[in-house]
Amino acid sequence: MFLDVFKEDGYAALTPAGYIACAVIILLIVVLSILFVKPKENAKPHWKSKQLVFSAACLALAFLLSYIQPYKMPWGGSVTLFSMLFICLVGNWYGLRAGLTVAFTYSILQFIQSGGSYILTPLQVCCDYFFAFTALGFSGVFAGKKNGLIKGYILGIFLRGVFHSIGGYLYWMDYMPDNFPKALSAIYPIVYNYSYILIEGVATVLILCIPAVKSALNRIKRMTTE
């Protein structure tokens, strides 16, 4: 009902009912967390209303920009219009916990966007989507540090590439053509995945080094944290 299984090719795909079920699960998680996850008495809330609004805006922008793909790789993956930056911004502004929360939500959206069309195993889905995109939230490790946004962004995209590469080694190399050079098998998943991640990453870091951009982001950060 929720999955179409293609035994000849060894993969499955979400049906329309499966996509609806994923959306319902996300909605239930959000509703239940609001209703039942309460802070301890006299404890500061993890999310201020302003932080929640800006985090939601960053999540929406990241998801929207992920559809703008100047270059798309043949076996999955693409260079997007700075979509990863907006997830890393949340970690830099509000810390590790907020960064991981938003990044995990983004990973679910990415799975619904494209991952549901090709499922090999649960671990493959985790490596390609849930682990990989949630890793962007580790940008929060450098929150409050000098050049923390650039450092956190580099850490986030590096870890994303690690999980994509692990998925490549475990699953996708089995789908390479018979004439694929065996000597390249050891490095191909790394080269393939970091090729498009680094193109977007280098372009983003260059943009972040522009004084006007740095100044604008600092103003927004002050506005969202006051």
Give a written overview of the molecule.
With 226 residues, this protein is mainly α. It has helices at 16-36, 49-65, 83-94, 96-113, 122-134, 148-170, 188-208, 211-225, and strands at 3-6, 11-14, 71-72, 78-79. The strands form two sheets. It has a two-stranded antiparallel sheet with strand order 1-2. Strands 3-4 form a two-stranded antiparallel sheet. The chain is globular, with a radius of gyration of 19 Å. The chain starts with a strand and ends with a helix. The mean pLDDT is 84.
Q: What are the defining features of this structure?
A:
single chain, 226 residues, mainly alpha, two-stranded antiparallel sheet, two-stranded antiparallel ribbon, 8 helices, 4 strands, 62% helix, globular
Topology record:
Elements: E1 3-6, E2 11-14, H1 16-36, H2 49-65, E3 71-72, E4 78-79, H3 83-94, H4 96-113, H5 122-134, H6 148-170, H7 188-208, H8 211-225
Helix pairs in contact: 2-3, 2-4, 3-4, 3-6, 4-5, 5-6, 6-7
Distance between the termini: 48 Å
Counted beta strands: 4
Shape: globular
Count of alpha and pi helical runs: 8
Low-confidence stretches: none
Helicity, in percent? 55-70%
Order of secondary-structure elements: EEHHEEHHHHHH
Provide the structure class: mainly alpha
Kindly report the average pLDDT value: 84
Strand-residue proportion = 5-15%
Question: Biggest β-sheet: count, sense, barrel?
Answer: 2 strands, antiparallel
- Strands of the widest sheet, in order across it, are 1-2
Radius of gyration: 19 Å
